[in-house]
Design goal:
14 helices, Beta-lactam/transpept-like, Beta-lactamase/esterase, Beta-lactam-related, 14 strands, Beta-lactamase, CubicO group peptidase (Beta-lactamase class C family), alpha+beta, 3-stranded antiparallel sheet
Length: 409
């Protein structure tokens, strides 16, 4: 079989659907991407890589919709879960930068009433670095409610924190968006989705939307389980693992409905929504922690423009990617590390050794990832609709990121 991305070179059966372009020195990225398809790890996927402003990889392949057989095209967008958090962080940082707001000041100085229930000391930086102690809603939240950011913010403002804010960190799976998003909504007046469209994606020509309109949803990839995970069936179910290693502890937390892990991921509840995260209403709502629909090129372009100073000032970015917290995560159990909204290298944002100083970004549940590196000038976007079982980037993205860094040698 032959691939358009490889210019006629023979590739393994199952990789023929890969299309696009790849600079010769990045051929190992192409090979890893094709191999993911050949091994049945992908349904549909795309990856784009820039070095500086130069696009060196733009590949795509597979099915955008496994039910209809619709092919993945160059401009196919895909829901990318928590990759959204980096966009929300950038919107918040830009809002603060442009308005001269101090994110180190108490949140209650610009969000009246937020200081209720022991939250007087919470700062904007705490909201952006998962230190606010509000990783889960105190009551069940329907998916329909989540379309109203003011209502979500009001719920969180009235809650007591799970730990003393600023003393620990824990992944705010969904609540992050309505906490950090208030920096934008209250200080600028727009929602995160509106701000991203007006100030970032629109002016920079990026194919990404936090709350996608109908014409975009018409061509958005449909999420499904990847073939490899479907073949494993219920391998993750059954008795909780007995080991004391971090992964076993995380799996036990995931199986305990009362754990912070389970509570954080459970609300808003999409279990009764037809199609879940394929539901057009959910995708259009623009949840600011998990609501982005993007092409790989749009996501990579966002990080390219971050590095180039076209989104926020270079000094703002430098400060934002400075690690604020690191170590055991109160929610994920595994080690995590964050700057202001951006993941930094850790067990939950695994990167090659060469990336450990300069890399930052955010993963999305099931496999997607956006990444940039201030030292190497790399910007990368990878989106998938065949969702892996991993909560974070997973092995597919790790292999691709490693191939990018290996190609620099």
């Amino acid at each position: 079989m032959r691939s358009a991305a490889q210019g006629g070179e023979a590739v393994p059966e199952g990789a023929a659907e890969v299309q696009g372009t790849c600079a010769p020195e990045f051929s190992r990225v192409r090979k890893v991407f094709e191999n993911n398809f050949a091994r049945g790890l992908e349904t549909g996927a795309a990856i784009t890589v820039h070095i500086g402003d130069e696009k060196v990889v733009e590949l795509w392949g597979g099915l955008a919709d496994h039910r209809t057989g619709r092919r993945w095209e160059r401009d196919t967008p895909c829901f990318a879960f928590s990759c959204t958090k980096a966009l929300t962080a950038a919107a918040a940082l830009r809002t603060a930068e442009r308005g001269g707001h101090d994110l180190g000041a108490p949140v209650a100085s610009w969000w009246p009433g937020f200081d209720a229930a022991g939250k007087a000391g919470v700062t904007g930086e705490h909201l952006l670095s998962h230190q606010a102690g509000l990783p889960a809603f105190a009551r069940p939240v329907a998916a329909e409610e989540a379309a109203d950011p003011a209502a979500m913010a009001e719920l969180l403002a009235g809650q007591a924190p799970e730990w003393e804010p600023g003393t620990a960190h824990g992944y705010h799976t969904f609540t992050y968006g309505w906490l950090a998003g208030e920096i934008v909504r209250r200080l600028d007046g727009r929602t995160v989705g509106g701000y991203v469209a007006d100030e970032i994606a629109g002016p920079l020509g990026l194919d990404l939307w936090v709350g996608a309109p109908d014409p975009v949803l018409d061509r958005t990839a449909r999420l499904t389980s990847s073939k490899a995970d479907a073949d494993r069936g219920g391998a993750a179910a059954g008795a909780p693992p007995a080991g004391d290693d971090p992964l076993s502890r995380m799996k036990r937390a995931a199986q305990d409905p009362e754990s912070l892990f389970s509570r954080s991921f459970a609300q808003p509840d999409v279990s009764g929504v037809p199609g879940r995260f394929n539901n057009r209403g959910v995708l259009a709502a623009g949840w600011p922690a998990a609501g982005v629909v993007a092409t790989a090129t749009g996501l990579a372009g966002f990080y390219r423009d971050l590095l180039a100073g076209r989104v926020i000032a270079p000094e703002t970015l430098h400060d934002a990617v400075r690690p604020r917290v690191g170590g055991p995560d109160r929610v994920l159990v595994l080690e995590s590390a964050f700057g202001l909204g951006f993941m930094r290298p850790s067990l939950t944002f695994a990167v090659p050794r060469a990336a450990r100083q300069g890399a930052f970004g955010h993963t999305g549940s099931g496999g997607s990832i956006g990444l940039a590196d201030v030292d190497h000038g790399i910007s990368l976007g990878y989106v998938v609709n065949g969702l892996g079982a991993q909560l974070s980037g997973g092995m597919r993205s790790m292999r691709l990121v490693k191939a990018v860094y290996d190609s620099l040698r």
